[in-house]
Amino acid sequence: MIKIELLSERNFCLESLDLYNRKQNVNKVYRRIDGEYTLVECKYTEDWDLNKKRSVAKQISSDDYITYVALDNEKVVGFIGLLRKLNGPYMILDMMQVSSECRGQGVGRQLFEVGKAEARKAGAEALYISACSSEETIAFYRAMGSGLASNPIKEIAEEEPFDLQMICPVKD
Asked: In terms of Cα–Cα distance, which of 132, 134, 131 is closest to 41?
């Protein structure tokens, strides 16, 4: 059974993502064409090597983040990393991942709900997400109640020009 826990020294270390399966085969992505987002064919595989996994592990375990991990028998199978410092009315959902073998089982939904609760607790009005433009990723965030940001955060949008800038209200 998969458990969601706040990241701590007890359940996470810099090697905790070494066996993490980030692999995602992408077939279609959203691109802005004539002012509208349109799905276009764009086949590639997203994956992380060991250096990237260790870099992400270091990042999400820093004091800048509030991170929750999804654990299956003490193995990390997903996580959500939220920036602790609010950006105006937003809590930034900086990273969210579910291992390929656990996708479609509700793990992402559980992590996202915990993220919304943290945002509420911090006084944020919404989660801000710079989302990978893959068809599956955008479908997930839309299913969670997110929509396109009408006022994207310029620095974040410029850093990831192909991402879709989304927000998800967190008030009950």
From this structure: 134
